[in-house]
Amino acid sequence: MAEGEDRTEAPSARRLEQARRDGNLAISRELGMLAMLAAAGAAALASLPSAVAALARSMAGLLGNLGQVDVARGGLRPLMRSLLTHDMMPFLPLLLASALGTLAIGLLQSGLSLRPQALMPQFSRISPLSGIGRIFGGETLVEAFKALLKLGAFAVVIWSCAAAAVPEVGRLVSLDPASMLGLFGRLLFRALVEIVGLQALIAVLDLGWVRWRRLSKLKMTRQEQRDEFKETEGDPHIKGRIRALRQRRARRRMLDEVPKAAVVITNPTHYAVALAYDKGGQGAPKIVAKGVDEVAARIREAARKANVPLVPNPPLARALHRLELDTEIPHEHFQAVAAIIAFVWRQRRSGTAG
What we know:
The chain is mainly alpha-helical. 16% of the residues are buried. It has 2 domains: 25-111 and 134-217, no CATH class; 259-351, secretion proteins EscU (name from scop), CATH 3.40.1690. It starts with 12 loop residues before the first helix and ends with a helix. The chain has helices at residues 13-21, 29-64, 76-85, 92-109, 128-135, 138-169, 177-217, 222-233, 236-256, 293-305, 314-321, 334-350, and strands spanning 263-266, 271-276, 286-292, 310-312. A 4-stranded mixed beta sheet has the order 3-2-1-4, sandwiched between helices. The protein is 64% helix and 6% strand.
């Protein structure tokens, strides 16, 4: 790469695929947080009323029997154990929903890509120097700025929910437990909707930022693009030399077929087409060599050395040159080619061919 060359080119498909295999993915943490909140909120709406009711009954029983508990002898311990195990079980769906929601959105963002090697320790991550670099690096400052903005936005939403709930608080003293739980449920639902909505907006913005930042980091210089092209498609100069070598080999094989030809039809200077014909066979004459200019001259030279007759016929030579090698003469040229081959055979019988 040239010194100081800017990364201005979009990353190639190969670079993006390599980054994906290396674990460099556009994963938004805020999208994971949204999935966790949404899943927990849905689970809460479904299970929270019964969970709160069960917890209220347990707390009422605990407080009602508190005077009979021998605290000094550890009598409170079984009650607390029951409260934390049996009575808190209705809240378990919230925890499971949060965990599953976060896991699901993480897998979707990564394209269901699992990398066990990511669990292996990387000593570069625990290096003090690299740690200091990460702390004072630009990425940390950006993340800190994003966290401050998010904290401010949530503070505004929570303040709005609290301000809307203040007039309802005064009614609590006149409500029975069922109505009180209903009021709490409505306030909680409103707060949940506003918080999830705000988190959804933050997640969309963060996902766009993460994807843009990843593509920016993966941008390539023009030299990197050229190097990658050479690796994947091959060096154009080397490919050109290989192509020329193959053409020379094909031409040499073609010239080796000229001595086996029955006749070479010429332009007479620009075109040359060598035809082979098996007198005892069933097929038509076949093109075994063809060329123009320099290649035509070499075909004529090989024909003279092998005493293969050269017959000038410019229209027929040009027409036959348009056909592929190793193809038989089509019907429209049978008469002209047959006349030439018959002429060559007569010349050979008379001893004047060539």
